Amino acid sequence: xxxxxxxxxxxxxxxxxxxxxxxxxxxxxxxxxxLGMEDKIFNILIPTEKKIKIKNGKRKTITEKIFPxxxxxEMVVTDESWYVVxxxxxxxxxxxxxxxxxxxxxxxxxxxxxxxxVEEPKFKIDFIANDPVKIIDGPFKNFEGKISEIDEKRGxxxxxxxxxxxxxxxxxxxxxxxxx
Length: 180
What we know:
By secondary structure, this protein is α+β, with helices and mostly antiparallel strands.
């Protein structure tokens, strides 16, 4: 019987080669099944969140990894289960001190699950009226102007752009401009 080096079922963080997170998750699932470790290794999680990006002037909601190069594993750490995880291809090790994995706290896991559970990403408009901005996307790309209005709900801003000798208001997506 291997000695217990943990306090029951907890979440641990394993480091992987970046870009191999899905590969590691499926490889580890296969190893758990083939080595009969279902009673020691329970869940594998790649933390992701939804973000809004602008592509070709259109809003797109994309899913992004919160911690590229890391995978969370819910497990009971024993010599056997540690060995199974540690020797899964593309896993470089546990996060911890020396060879002892350190579990995530309950608060860290809850915070992460809350962040992952957000269905619709919120608009974060970090402009205020009169901020000088440069337009970085769309038909007015490279124009400069200043913010005249902000519509948080729709994620839109109005920018006063100097054209033909006068200031013209241009409505943009908030992601189409950046502060100067």
